[in-house]
Amino acid sequence: MTARPSVLLWLDQPEPYLRAAQVAGLASAVELVPAKLSADPPDEALARADALLAWRPPARLRERAPRLRWIQSLTGGVEQWLATELPGGVVLTCARGTHRLQMPENILGALFLVAKQLGPIVLDQRERRWRRRINPTLAGTTLGILGVGAIGTELARKAAALEMRVIGTRRDGAPVPHVERVFRPEQTDEVLAQADYVVLLLPSTDETRGIMNTRALGRMKPTAHLLNFGRGDLVVDDDLVQAVRERRIAGAVLDVFTTEPLPAEHPFWTTEGIVVLPHVGGLHPQRDDLVAELWLDNLTAFLAARPLRAVVDPARGY
């Protein structure tokens, strides 16, 4: 009798994934092995694992998991996986597409936060200060999205409903619904120069790390805001702090950072005009259920030796 494939679930809350496999009738077709994220996975579990579901790579993965053929990352960002020596022939898939609803809503929340001065209004209440602030509309402004993928496409649809003009960049330059013009990455300066709000939704790659530096920030309007919901290392921290302090741009809303949690001494905390969000853009009460749906599709395909969804291209970095 052929042994069942072994799938190691290295996370603290495996229940949504175990339940999804059970409902789909796959729990008997595979060996599902939960392991708590708080400790390194047992050597024995890694040694027999054919597939792995995890947030990050276990130590010495190539050495300890010689049978591994498929890794499902629980996140869309995969730079930590690509920085690890993976077992030969392994297929890496990510959680691309599972943030399609919550991320655009959180970005819209950030847009309203800065456009309508909601932060200062809340602080006015604390001081019992009656101050009627006059705010511009989002309608008629230009939203520039660097990295128009699944999230950017949904954001564009919602922004267009607010009567915003949307432009953006995409590697292939292909048209996207509700985006007036799609530029290629080498035309990023065109987006920076036109946008009132620049949203970063790029992956972390050799080409994108540090893309928002002094030069790029200098291409933005002095009245424009930068919103980073992509990866923390897209931004050169010191360059952004200086640009905001010197009013070369109006401000920034940051949800991702090179170091997380953001160190208490970091100037982002205290720079007027910069809003720090604690990496909440992709959070959702049913996030695990959304990722479990993708994982289940891939598990079904894996067992049937069919192509998987959201496969990462190591050469591109996402």
Quick overview of this protein structure:
With 318 residues, the protein is of the alpha/beta class. The protein folds into 2 domains: 6-98 and 285-303, Rossmann fold (3-Layer(aba) Sandwich), CATH 3.40.50; 102-276, NAD(P)-binding Rossmann-like Domain (Rossmann fold).
Q: What topology emerges from the helices and strands here?
A:
Blueprint: E1 6-10, H1 15-23, E2 31-35, H2 43-47, E3 51-54, H3 61-64, E4 70-73, H4 79-82, E5 91-93, H5 102-115, H6 118-126, E6 142-146, H7 150-161, E7 165-169, E8 181-183, H8 188-194, E9 197-200, H9 214-217, E10 225-228, H10 237-245, E11 251-254, E12 274-276, H11 287-303
Parallel strand pairs: 1-2, 1-3, 3-4, 4-5, 6-7, 6-9, 7-8, 9-10, 10-11, 11-12
Helix pairs in contact: 1-11, 5-7
- Strands, count: 12
Give the name of the CATH architecture of the largest domain: 3-Layer(aba) Sandwich
Question: What proportion strand?
Answer: 15-25%
How many domains make up the coordinates? 2
- Look at the helices and sheets and give the structural class: alpha/beta
Give the CA-CA distance, first to last residue: 38 Å
User: What is the tally of helical segments?
Assistant: 11
CATH C-level category of the largest domain: Alpha Beta
